[in-house]
UniProtKB/TrEMBL annotation:
SUPFAM superfamilies: Composite domain of metallo-dependent hydrolases, Metallo-dependent hydrolases. This is Dihydroorotase. One of its GO terms (cellular component) is cytoplasm. GO terms for biological process: purine nucleobase catabolic process. Catalyzes the reversible cyclization of carbamoyl aspartate to dihydroorotate. Keywords: Hydrolase, Metal-binding. Residues 53-420 form the Amidohydrolase-related domain.
Length: 443
């Protein structure tokens, strides 16, 4: 007897754990119920002829600025940008105002997000010297992505930079801890290397050694504490080589912007719009990141979406804030790298879906398989287009990639069986729910 589904995706090239297949996918109750041909009837059928159906892409590092900084971005606008770009779930960072550093503030974010965010979501808890002993309980709250440590000051006031406080944070809890690894003492000592009005001095100030010192320190402390860590936005080949020697305890992330931009072009062309922490570095650094990426060292790709207004970015360096938007351009930038032969589609899927599932212990996400959430990023690998201001949804109103010609774009974003975006048009309502983690579901 033919089955009945809520949704069937037909005629697409579907990327299952076994590889690319010309099959249909049936969805019932928000989950994948069948994969094959001749599945039966459905309340909704989407024709995906000529398109590739990928597991839903997960961006495991975004800053959506709510509460306190909503003039830059908020949970609704940031998540709208995410789904327009093909992202089905995000992990949001704690350096808001106030910081997300207590149970009350985690629950406040979860309440603000419910069916107001367009995509599924989780929120990091910010580590401080004051809440270190409470982090083991805070990381167990459903909807939390874990604990985040800022070893070097970035946007916001969260900072844990001495070994004693870092050790206390690592001793409290057991989930993998996310790390911003730049050495605060070295950067403070090098502030005089910043040149007023010259953002190209940003990577001179926040140099390779600032990153490497912090990465070596946190890996040593993590090993002593027997605590797994995840090092965010790695920018130097030397760090990736070192992390590759310590994969038993450390996973890591690279970003699309560090894989795409190079200092020699970016700072003259973009000025402070290329300023972020850790910095955009040289073309040689970029090529080194690609070399280690193709050796399998990075586990995930995150956008580090960190918007500031055009007016803020117009301030004279170093008064200008660090950070750039990126959640909406994550998928198309990577698809363009696929089109140009730098990245395989299989590796793209690993970095944006199965990788996050493995690193963070996600429940029901990260692959197209029976019983998993019906999350799909449907892409046109051959579409040639230009990133235009009218397509950008972030409240900050700009992108360093505006005007860039790309090949490959997300045509549809489907989350738990809901067609949230199709051909740049949004659904009538947001359906975002908290991401589920093994650590909070089954601990």
């Amino acid at each position: 007897m033919a089955q009945t589904f809520d949704l069937i995706l037909k005629n697409g090239t579907v990327h299952t754990p076994g590889g690319a297949e010309s099959v249909d996918v049936g969805v019932r109750g928000g989950r994948i119920a069948a994969i094959g041909t001749g599945l039966g009837d459905a309340g909704e059928v989407i024709d995906c002829a000529g398109l590739d159906v990928l597991p839903g892409c997960i961006d495991s590092q975004v800053h959506f600025r709510e509460p306190g900084l909503e003039y830059k971005e908020d949970l609704e606008s940031g998540s709208r940008a995410a789904v327009l770009g093909g992202v089905t779930a995000v992990f949001e960072m704690p350096n808001t105002n106030p910081n997300t550093d207590s149970a009350e503030r985690v629950h406040d974010k979860l309440s603000r997000a419910h069916h107001r965010m367009w995509c599924d979501h989780a929120f990091y808890v910010g580590a401080t010297a004051d809440n270190a002993e409470q982090l083991g309980e805070l990381e167990r709250i459903p909807g939390t992505a874990g604990v985040k440590i800022f070893m070097g000051a970035s946007t916001g006031s969260l900072l844990v930079d001495d070994d004693d406080a870092l050790s206390r944070v690592l001793a409290s809890g057991w989930r993998r801890v996310a790390i911003h690894a730049e050495d605060e003492a070295r950067m403070n000592a090098r502030k005089d290397l910043r040149v007023e009005g010259d953002p190209s001095s940003h990577p001179v100030w926040r140099d390779d050694e600032s990153a490497m010192i912090a990465t070596k320190r946190i890996i040593a402390l993590a090993r002593k504490a027997r605590r797994r860590i995840h090092i965010l936005h790695v920018t130097t080949p030397a760090e990736l080589e070192y992390i590759g020697q310590n994969k038993d305890i450390a996973t890591c992330e690279v970003t699309p912007q560090h894989l795409t931009l190079a200092a020699e072009d970016a700072y003259p062309r973009l000025g402070t719009h290329a300023q972020m922490n850790p910095p955009i570095r040289s073309g040689a650094h970029r090529e080194g990141l690609w070399r280690w990426l193709n050796q399998g060292v990075p586990d995930v790709l995150g956008s580090d979406h960190a918007p500031h207004t055009i007016e803020e970015k117009a301030k004279v360096y170093p008064a200008s804030p660090s950070g750039m938007p990126g959640v909406q351009t994550l998928v198309p930038l990577l698809l363009n790298h696929v089109a140009e032969g730098r990245l395989t589609l299989r590796r793209f899927i690993e970095l944006t879906s199965s990788g996050p599932q493995r690193v963070f212990g996600l429940v029901g996400k990260g692959r197209i398989a029976l019983g998993y959430d019906a999350d799909f990023t449907v892409v046109d690998l051959k579409k040639r287009w230009t990133v235009g201001s009218d397509w950008l949804a972030s409240r900050c109103g700009w992108s360093p990639f505006e005007g860039m010609d790309l090949t490959g774009k997300a045509v549809g974003t489907i989350i738990r069986g809901h067609r949230v975006m199709w051909e740049d048009a949004l659904a009538n309502e947001a359906v975002g729910e908290p991401v589920r983690f093994e650590a909070t579901e089954f601990s």
